[in-house]
Amino acid sequence: GEESREERYANIPELKELRRDLRNKSTIAEAKLWSALKGKQIQGRKFRRQHSIGRYVVDFYCPSEKLAIELDGSVHDNPARREYDAERQRSLESRGIRVLGFRNRAVVQTLEMVVETIVGNFLKP
Do 98 and 68 form a contact (C-beta atoms < 8 A)? Predict the structure, then answer.
């Protein structure tokens, strides 16, 4: 079925250590957004943190919405990184996953607006 195909690409064992390292080295913005998303606080949606899909690891992922959330600081501003990000976005979208991106600064300064934007991107009421 569709679910089992998606599960085959999710959290592949080879990336387990990378995902753990990323969780342990989270930025202030990631920690702040995670505190708002975890525990099904937002309309009962389950979010995962540092979730891998294929060969990519996304900051946050909501399986029921097929919605990935990426936070980026200035690290994403160089051309090579932008190309990598575009390739990752194409790969995720080819699996029916929508990607929302936010700046770290936006999460830290306007968390409520970020959460409202996430809710506004839910497909189901």
Answer: yes
pTM for this entry = 0.78
Alpha-carbon distance 118 to 9, whole Å?
24
CA angle centred on 103, ends 30 and 21, rounded to 5°: 35
Q: Quick one: average pLDDT of 115-121?
A: 97
Task: Measure Cα distances from 94 to 66, 110, 122 in Å.
Answer: 12, 31, 19
Which amino acid would we find at residue 105? R
The two three-digit tokens of residue 25, written as one number? 């080295």
Backbone angles phi, psi at 99, to 5 degrees: -120, 125
3-state secondary structure of 25: coil
